[in-house]
Amino acid sequence: RTCAGVSRRQPWGRIPRRRDVKETATDKVERLSLDNQRCTSYYVPKIRNIERVRMLESKNIDSARLGDLCDIVVGMPLSRARRIPESSSGETVGVITQKTLTADGIDLEEVSYEVLGQVRKACITSSGDVIVKLTTPYDCAYINSDCAGLLVVSAAAILRPRTRSVNMRWIAAVLGTPQLKGELRLASIGASIQMIKKSGLANLVIPVPSVEKQEHVASVHERVESFKSSCRRSMRLADTFLAASVSAAAFHNEDI
């Protein structure tokens, strides 16, 4: 088999290539496609941020970069946390996995408890934090006292308030909107797994209304999340009751 600038395949299977080989049409298309993808991932989020700022200004709504409002801490790789020094026996820590962080918030039933050695204190959740999943579908959740003390892995990031003028429940609520999830999707990179970088998350422009409006939305968000949590518990109890009833009727000939 021969092609431009490439000699015939040698018996040992090696194809010697010359240094002065010209770029083929296929190579040029691939290079331009890659350049276009890099250009799109770099410029499109910036242009969208400018458009969003102008749109919010037209409606007299203040806005700010997420990185100016919150400190962003990317989670710790779990493989590094599992390294236990010889002088230590490790400690049992709850880990927030992909199944733990869902669109409905933190599912405590899916928390994985492991014996870990080297744990960064900055990657441990505390009350008032907000967790954002860095991969699709970019779920986020507000951390209350029940979810404090858990380790966040590298597939998520922790947001901590930098200023008192922002309510973290408002941040969790607005990050869950379809508009901002779409912006995160545009700013993400990767072919098979779409992932948002820390810089892309920090450059996200979000609306910042008055403190009173933030507190009102935060109270509604808290009540809805509490209702959803009680619904999840009721569904688990219903599933347990149904499985036990069918098992008793099928295998023990009992009435239900």
In terms of DSSP E residues, the strand content is 15-25%
Order of helices and strands: HEHEHEEEEEEEEHHHEH
The spatial strand order of the largest sheet comes to 2-10-7-8
Distance between the termini: 74 Å
Q: Unreliable runs, pLDDT <50, ≥5 residues?
A: 1-18
Oligomer classification: single chain
Question: Overall mean pLDDT score?
Answer: 78
User: How many helices does DSSP assign?
Assistant: 7
What's the alpha carbon Rg, rounded to whole Å?
Answer: 25 Å
How would you characterize the largest beta sheet?
4 strands, antiparallel
The dominant shape is globular
Structural class: alpha+beta
Number of strands: 11
- Helix fraction bin: 40-55%
Descriptive keywords:
single chain; 256 residues; 3-stranded mixed beta sheet; 7 helices; 11 strands; globular
Summarize it.
By secondary structure, the protein is an alpha+beta fold.
Describe the structure.
- The chain is α+β, with helices and mostly antiparallel strands.
- The chain is built from seven helices and eleven strands.
- The strands form four sheets. A four-stranded antiparallel sheet has the order 2-10-7-8.
- Strand 4 and strand 5 form a beta hairpin.
